Here is the input.
Amino acid sequence: MGRKPDAATKFGGGGGGGGAASPRPARRAPPSPVFLGTALFVLGFVSLFTGHVVTDADWSRIRSRWRSKQFRNNEPIDIWKSKYSSLYHACSERSTDFRSAVLENSSTGYLLIATSGGLNQQRIGITDAVVVAWILNATLVVPQLDHHSFWKDESEFSDIFDVDWFISYLSRDVSVVKRIPYEVMMSMDKLPWTMRAPRKSMPDFYTSEVLPILMRRRVLQLTKFDYRLTSELDEDLQKLRCRVNYHALRFTNSIQAMGQKLVQKLRLMSSQYVAIHLRFEPDMLAFSGCYYGGGEKERKELGEIRKRWDTLPELSAEEERSRGKCPLTPHEVGLMLRALGFGNDTYMYVASGEIYGGEETLKPLKELFPNFYTKEMLAVEDLEPFLPFSSRLAAIDFIVCDESDVFVTNNNGNMAKVLAGRRRYMGHKRTIRPNAKKLNVLFQRRNEMGWDMFSRKVKKVQRGLMGEPDDIRPRQYDFHEFPSSCICIRKPENTSVTA
Here is the structure.
C-alpha cells in the first residue's frame, strides 16, 4: 500500500524551524554487564549462609536497576513491543497453604454484593467481592450490577460475563451461587442487612465489623461495592484478585465473538494496530473540570453536566491542566503518537462513546491517522443487538483494545487501569500512558520548535510510561494497574540459587 500524505506537517510537523537544539550534558556510561553478574553472585553467596531464598522480587530488583539505566538512557524505544517482556511471566497460582473454599453449607452465610459505576468499575468491585467472601468464609451470591448510574444499563451479570465459568473457575477458592436458596430466604424473619464498607478497607474491617453481622443474619448485602478493599493485601490474596480478574471474568460467547470479529477485520487490513481509549466524552470532561477553548457554550454545557455530582469541588481548569489532570484532546493524542514514531499509515482503533464536539473534534486525529476505525465503522448492522446496552458495548471495546499491539490510555480511569494491568499480566504488551503534565508544556510551546525537536522531547517525557516491565509508577498506584504480585521474572537456568 502506498504511503499516504503526511499530516504531521500540516498540524505543526515537518523538519526545520526552531533553531538547533541546545547542547546536552554528557551522559554517564551505563554500568558494565559485570555489575549484574557480581550482584547475582553476592546475593547467592549470602543466601548460602543466611538461608535466604532468592525470590522473584530479588531478581527483579537487581535486573531492573541494571536494565532501567541502560534502557532509559541509551536504547531507542521500540514503539510496538518491549524487548524485555520475555523476561517476565504471569504467576497467580494458589500457594500450597492457601485455604480452600468453604462449602456452602459450612460457610458463615451468604454475601450479596451490589456493584456501582460502569463496566470496569463493576469489574473491580466483583474482583474484590470474591476476596472479601474468602476473608469472611462466606458463600458469594453472583454480584448484582449497577442499573442506576450514569450509564443506565439494565444488563445482569450473566448478560456480560459467563456465569457458569465464573462459578466453576473459582470453586477451589470461594463458593459462589447464582441465588440464595429458597429455603434460606423463607427461614429469614427480616430482610437482608444492608451496609456500605468504607473505601480501601483492610481485611481486619471485614472480620471485625462485617463478619459478626453476617453470622447473626445469615445474609448480608454490601452496597456501592467499588474500591472497598485496600490495594495492599498479602500476596496470596493479590493472586486471588488476579485469578478472578484475568481468568474467572470471561465475557459471554456473544460478546467475545463480536469483539474477535472486529479484531479479525483489523488484522486482515494490517498486521499491527493501535487502540486508543480516547475518553473524551462530555461526562468525563465535565467531571474533570477542564476547559478546551470552546467559549461560553462549552462552559455552560459542561457546567450543566457537572451538576450531576453534588460533592465535586470548584476547580480551576488552568490549574488542572498544569497538574496533568485533563485528558488530552484527540488532536494532542495524535501529535503525541506521531512524535513517538507512529506513521500516518498506522491503523488506529478508537474506543469511545460520544465524543464532545463530534466529528469536528475528531477531524485532526483522522487527518493524522487516516486508517481510523471504531466499532460502529467495523461492525455496522452486527452491532445492533448491543446498542441499547452501554456495558456490552464497553466490553466489545475492551476486547479489541486488549488484543491490540499498542494500547493508548487518555486518562487514569477504570478501563485504563484494568486494561493496563491485564496487558502487563498477559506479557507486557505495549501500553502508553501519556505524561499529560509534561506534554501540556510541550503542546503550549509547539510553535516555538521544529518537528524534530518536538519529537525528541515527546520521546523523552514518555520514557517510563510506555508499558515497560519497570515503568514509573504513581506514588499511590492501584494494584489493578500494576499487579506486581502476579508477575514473576524468569530466572536463568544456570543461576538458580537457594539455601
The chain has two domains: 104-248, 253-489.
